[in-house]
Structures are given as structure tokens and as C-alpha cells.
Amino acid sequence: MNLKTFLLSVVAAGIAGMASAQTQVVAHRGYWKSEGAAQNSIAALHAAAAINVYGTEFDVQLTADKKIIVNHDADFQGHVIAKTKMSKLRKLRLANGEPMPTLKEYLKAGKKHPQLKMVLEIKEQANKADENLMVDKVVAMVKAMRMEKQTDFISFSLNACERLAQLMPNASVSFLGGRLSPIQLKGKGINGLDYHYNEFKKNPQWVAEAHDLGMTVNVWTVDDMDVARRMRDLKVDFITTNLPVEVAELAR
Predict the structure, then answer these.
(1) What is the tens place of the pLDDT at every residue in 62-72?
(2) Which of 54, 117, 121, 157 could crosslink 59 through cysteines, CB 3.0-4.6 Å?
């Protein structure tokens, strides 16, 4: 085989591999439906690693004393996180009895599972300066823990996504908010779409367009198996779900 033939065969194999790429699964807030777990708990993170999915999604908020804590909602057990100090929040307990994790604790637990992607959602903040501070603190911590390659970033905030893309140009950064086409996101330096499945029902061509631009495509939050099949058949890269075992079986 001459060099030209060899190179052509390598390219063909690469294209074939891309065409047959399997849709992968992200456990939404961890595999929290497993025994002993709770949403955004460290137990849910470990459970996600145990079922060998692509990643575990989790959310971070900024406390009143400008520290980063893991929680989805802006409030917890009647306490507004942005107006409550970390020390007080840490005294509260998740549904499984764990304290609410700090970002450092969560990343440290995730680092024990290097094959598991940490899909980190920056929650929108009412104050842009606070949001920028949170992004900066998150990036600094990820870098300090040398977890750049293990961490993917997502947000409903375009501001947060653009700032993440500037600070970590080699990272996977995906916008959650919908509305924008792949070419519009690409123009903002954002390299992934992570949209609700209804966006792809309305705009199925966006999946192929994104792939042509070298972007990734995720879809949330899919707990209906018919919808999961449709997204798989569209060849989305990732499906975020509260039912990671069932969706992973379907995606095979």
C-alpha cells in the first residue's frame, strides 16, 4: 500500500467511525435515583460513575460570602443561596443526609473517576458582576485541580458561556437556552448546543449543522424513551436524563 492509499484509508476509517458514533448519556444531577443518593449529591456522582455513563451533570451557585456551592435551585429549604453564607448552608442536609457539597468537594470526588466527565452548569445570577466572579472562581478551581480535560461547561447565560470560552478556549462550552442556531453560537466562540429536545424537534437540521461546524450537540432532559430514540436517530452526541440506565440501554 502506497502512502496516498494509506492516508485515504485512514480518513475513510475516521469518517466511518464518526458516522457510527454512539450517542452517550449524561446523568442529570447525578444518578440520583439510585439507592442512598439525592440530586446533586456526591453519592449520585459516584453512582453515575458506577454505571459507566459519559458524565454527571451538576449545578453551582454563588453564596452570600462569594463561595461556590453545588445546588440546582436558587434557594434551599427556605434559604436564598445568594443571601446566605456558606457556613449556614453547610448545616443543612440533602434528602440523603449529606451536607450540601462545595464545588471543591464535588470536583475532588469526581477526580476519583477520571473516565467520568464533570458537566458543570453555571447558574445564571441576577448580578452580572457576581456571575463573572462565579465563572472566574469556577475556572480557577478547575485549573487548580488540574481537571480541565475532565470538565465540560454549560449555562443558560450567554454571558457566562462567552466568558468561559474566553478563559478556557480549549474547553467544551455549551449554551442551554435554545433559540440560537449553531452558526450564531459559533460566532460567539461557543462550541456546543445543549438544548431542550423541543428545539431539535423544531429544528432537526441544527444537529447536522452543528457537527459540520465541529460543535457538539446535547439534549435535555429526556426521560421519555420515544423522545430518546428520536434524538438518538438524529445523532445527537449526548442525552441528559434522569433515567441514565434506561437511556444508555436504548442508545447502544
Answers:
(1) 999 999 999 99
(2) 121
Please name every residue paired with 68 in a beta bridge, in sequence order, or none if there are none: 62
Identify the pLDDT of residue 19.
Answer: 37
Q: Could you please report the per-residue DSSP string of 32-98?
A: TTSTT--TT-HHHHHHHHHTT-SEEEEEEEE-TTS-EEE-SSSEETTEEGGGS-HHHHTTSB-TTSP
Enter the C-alpha cell of residue 77.
429549604
pLDDT in tens, 38-52: 999 999 999 999 999
**3 state DSSP class of 228:** helix
Q: Which residues pair with 118 in a beta bridge?
A: 56, 151
The predicted model scores a pTM of 0.91
DSSP annotation of 125 reads: -
